[in-house]
Amino acid sequence: MNSEKKKKMARLVERISKKMESIQTMPSALADRILKFGILSFCILFFGCYMGIRMDSLNFVFWSIAISVFGFFRAGRLLWLAERQEYDTVEGTVYEIKGKHSLGRMYRIGLQLENGQTTQLLMDKRQRFQIGKRYRFYFNKKQEVLSGIKKLDVMLNVNSFYGFEEVE
Fold first, then answer.
1. pTM of structure
2. Of 2, 79, 102, 166, which sits 20 to 30 A from 128 (CA to CA)?
């Protein structure tokens, strides 16, 4: 029996070390998003349950638990995708920014890729970019064209953009 426990512990340590290696090789933009989802879910769970108990509201506790489970699920799913490298990357230098001061939530950035081609991305105005700097963008591999209208498709593909990082 004692040797079985040692074997199980050795396998457990091996699995944990493999998991840690995969997390360390993960892009920082994805790791940051996973960490933020996890922390937010934990805070919702902790404070929601605390406030629900203090207010004697079982519904408040239930919904806090449900929302936090959903957040933990999203964090776990993104971790699973990042470990298996099931994401697309676009890397390029920003050469123009259009619509920065216009109405709406989105603006268009122009990227020049390594092979000389150019592409444009619709990005949320909360994200800041500088002309002349190089960025790497992470997207879901299964981005779908839903209607053919660019701005509408961007709005409907809610979870297709994972994050970006500046490349030195």
1. 0.73
2. 79
Single-letter code of the amino acid located at 102: S
First to last CA, the chain: 54
Q: Are 120 and 137 in contact (CB under 8 A)?
A: no
Arithmetic mean of pLDDT, 105-116? 86
Contacts of 89 (CB under 8 A, 6+ apart): 136, 137, 138, 139
CA distance 95 to 92: 9
Which 3-state string (H, E, C) describes the chain?
A: CHHHHHHHHHHHHHHHHHHHHHHHCCCHHHHHHHHHHHHHHHHHHHHHHHHHHHCCCHHHHHHHHHHHHHHHHHHHHHHHHHHCCCEEEEEEEEEEEECCCCCCCEEEEEEEECCCCEEEEEEECCCCCCCCCEEEEEEECCCCCCCCCHHHHHHHCCCCEEEEEECC
pLDDT reading at 146 higher than 60: no
- For the ranges 82-86, 103-107, 146-150, 157-161, which has the lowest average pLDDT? 146-150
